[in-house]
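Technical annex, item 7. During the second reporting period the consortium partners agreed on a shared format for inverse folding records so that results from different sites could be compared directly. Each record opens with the tokenized structure and is followed by the designed sequence. A conforming record, contributed by the partner at site C, is shown below for reference.
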């Protein structure tokens, strides 16, 4: 969808909307992004039929970033695919294949693109961005909506309750990242600040990165945790950790994501000398029954959203222990159920070795 090479980084830089409006619509007329169902996209003045391939023709740099993203793999990701095989619901389809009707299985095209350019940047017969841009020869107008540079642009797909009738309460939030962000020390910064940082463009300018890399970028995960102290005493390793550079709980998103804090006795060469002690930081859910039917509720939340001190029990003779803080996309039992190697679904975000001196009696 060409509008001039110099403006490539601006028109596709930020999240936009996913509902049909007429050409020339004002920003106030536009709904914010949300899952399917959505109205079909329409031919765009000066461009014609909007497709993700057409977008990539002119926005090749951004399209290359998107192709490596979890947004692009929303449907074809092996973890989702195996989970969907057990629970084939429209609730899953509306976020993982948002360009199609969620009442039926998505088309091959919708599966292949996942959350793509037209999902977020085409609204009816319009292209929408965080700021308005005039058309250039062979290009298109961009409707501006400043809300698209704020957390509100992310809320529709990253903050929602468990499925069920709207009047069936209490219902836990299946994902609540936006509320977590509002409570965080980074509340004044938009989601895009971390998840779509500005990067150099080939034309010498900058643009918002569209790879949305988190779990694919170990350095991003490592910055999320601050280790404030580690000590080893007889019978326990104590580790004090706090949120680092992060604007929500750690981890956030999918209900199965968790963090394991581990301690393992080791010898002077670093070889394990016993079993690891593990503390899990995550959420636990249960089901309650009410006159309106069963509903999912949250029983506990031990994720890292404030400073925590964790004691891990070790044999009293331990004088050297390796400690690790490990982000996991899913617990080992879930990985085993889906026949996936949990080692491929985890990232060590911090680690080290703690020692203690032992007084020798003579």
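Designed sequence (site C submission):
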């Amino acid at each position: 969808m060409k509008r001039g090479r110099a403006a490539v980084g601006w028109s596709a830089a930020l999240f936009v909307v996913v509902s049909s409006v007429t050409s020339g619509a004002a920003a106030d007329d536009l709904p914010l992004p949300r899952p399917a169902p959505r109205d079909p996209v329409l031919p765009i003045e000066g461009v014609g039929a909007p497709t993700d391939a057409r977008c990539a023709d002119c926005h090749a740099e951004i399209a290359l970033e998107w192709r490596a993203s979890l947004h692009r793999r929303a449907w074809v990701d092996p973890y989702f695919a195996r989970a969907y095989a057990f629970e084939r619901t429209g609730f899953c389809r509306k976020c993982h294949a948002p360009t199609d009707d969620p009442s039926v299985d998505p088309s091959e095209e919708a599966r292949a693109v996942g959350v793509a350019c037209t999902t977020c940047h085409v609204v009816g017969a319009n292209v929408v961005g965080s700021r308005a841009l005039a058309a250039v020869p062979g290009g298109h107008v961009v409707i501006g909506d400043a809300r698209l540079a704020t957390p509100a642009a992310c809320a529709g797909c990253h903050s929602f309750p468990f499925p069920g009738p709207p009047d069936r309460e209490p219902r836990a939030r299946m994902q609540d990242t936006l509320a977590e962000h509002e409570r965080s020390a980074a509340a004044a910064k938009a989601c895009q600040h971390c998840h779509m940082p500005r990067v150099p463009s080939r034309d010498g300018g900058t643009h918002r990165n569209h790879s949305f890399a988190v779990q694919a970028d170990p350095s991003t995960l490592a910055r999320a945790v601050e280790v404030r102290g580690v000590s080893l005493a007889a019978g326990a390793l104590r580790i004090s950790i706090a949120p680092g550079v992060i604007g929500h709980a750690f981890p956030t998103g999918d209900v199965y994501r968790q963090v394991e804090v581990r301690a393992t006795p080791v010898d002077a060469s670093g070889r394990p000398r016993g079993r690891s002690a593990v503390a899990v930081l995550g959420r636990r859910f249960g089901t309650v029954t009410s006159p309106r039917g069963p509903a999912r509720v949250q029983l506990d939340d031990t994720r890292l959203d404030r400073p925590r001190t964790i004691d891990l029990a070790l044999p009293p003779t331990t004088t050297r222990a390796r400690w690790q803080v490990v982000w996991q996309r899913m617990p080992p039992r879930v990985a085993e159920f889906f026949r996936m190697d949990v080692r491929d679904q985890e990232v060590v975000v911090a680690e080290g070795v703690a020692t203690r001196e032992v007084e020798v009696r003579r």
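The longest strand covers residues 346-355. The CA atoms of residues 274 and 361 lie 25 Å apart. All partners now use this format for quarterly exchanges.
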